[in-house]
């Protein structure tokens, strides 16, 4: 299987973002990609107010575009994520659309980005509610596809569960900040790939989206051994790589860390200090 990660510099301009996403997704499919992953909040990304203002229903324009394009190109499309309308708070939602244009799975981001990075405070939970469901889908050829979004990648327990539930590939649409991309992004992605013995297809945003809000790019594809197969340059583009599923099966057979787990010995402390 060939997989692609699309890297965008989204802004509050929805029409511009959509045109760029459409162009690069088509180019990735032309390059042989059968699975394409878009970044986080690609339809509209700016200040928190601008991003939230672009919220739309689950069956809105983003879903309709993704379904139509996946069907036309005959690809599995992880349509990054978008702000899904909700009450009283919205959701950060990712869709997996199959080559027949049907929504195969819906994932709502579980971990809220409530942090301080580079002197800037981010409070995702002010406008968005966390999801509650871990989601593993399947590509058109039956390959297990785990869904996650951005900040999720800092929580290894999620990715271990995705692997245990059958994920052979994990999609990571993201808008990783510039500072954390430079210091943490590749390390986290490679660690999640090694731990889950899974391919990781990580599509990040690049550049400035609004004053002081900047993403670091470096979208990449990582194999189950932790080897980076492709990395995007610092521009709007896509990267594509071959996913050798037979090699993955060999890794899982010869270094069976998933099979050698001992869940009965893993007891969470009753309280975990922050």
UniProtKB/TrEMBL annotation:
Belongs to the carbon-nitrogen hydrolase superfamily. NIT1/NIT2 family. Keywords: Hydrolase. SUPFAM superfamilies: Carbon-nitrogen hydrolase (SSF56317). One of its GO terms (molecular function) is hydrolase activity, acting on carbon-nitrogen (but not peptide) bonds, in linear amides. InterPro entries: C-N_Hydrolase, C-N_Hydrolase_sf, Nit1/2_C-N_Hydrolase, UPF0012_CS. CDD domains: nit (cd07572). This is Carbon-nitrogen hydrolase family protein. It comes from Solirubrobacter phytolaccae. Residues 1-245 form the CN hydrolase domain.
